[in-house]
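Margin note from the TA: students keep mixing up input and output lines. Inputs are the sequences; the output is the structure of the whole complex. Example:
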Amino acid sequence: AQSVTQLDSQVPVFEEAPVELRCNYSSSVSVYLFWYVQYPNQGLQLLLKYLSGSTLVESINGFEAEFNKSQTSFHLRKPSVHISDTAEYFCAVRLPGANNLFFGTGTRLTVIP
Amino acid sequence: DAGITQSPRHKVTETGTPVTLRCHQTENHRYMYWYRQDPGHGLRLIHYSYGVKDTDKGEVSDGYSVSRSKTEDFLLTLESATSSQTSVYFCAISESGGQSYGYTFGSGTRLTVV
């Protein structure tokens, strides 16, 4: 069985400060990993994904995540957050060949002016 | 969200009544999914479809049924709504089972069962 753990349900951070949102997964086989972002009253949007290759993946708005196989982690980072980054962030995993994603419980990021 | 529409956006219904939520896509994607989102639980899969008339259960399928008679429409039905089904429901689509492309989500339907 696979599961996804997001260790922090809420993360407050001041504007222009760095942030890390943690995600750990449990799986005995290789997985595909995703981060989604949900802005208030909207659906989820794909932020970035790891399928294979380079363990560091980046999004267009300055977020990055690093796949760490030994620690079964896929933490999301940004060196300097903006007010507009306030949202809920979901980590998700998928087994190769599986038809659906398993989501974590989400981390609400609040950027404080 | 472009290419995927959920209706209605909001609904209040009484316990014991049937409710149908609709997901419509214009992307011609093969896979469609229904998730529910609840505080502390994230998103949980209810049912999904891998083609017309081809559906399968997810982890929280009890009390729900689905139908897909056309590629573009995926309906979620609560046969007899209960208060525990108060939630936000999201539809998602995927071109190839999502292995490379992830999902595209609709804007959600907020359902309240009173």
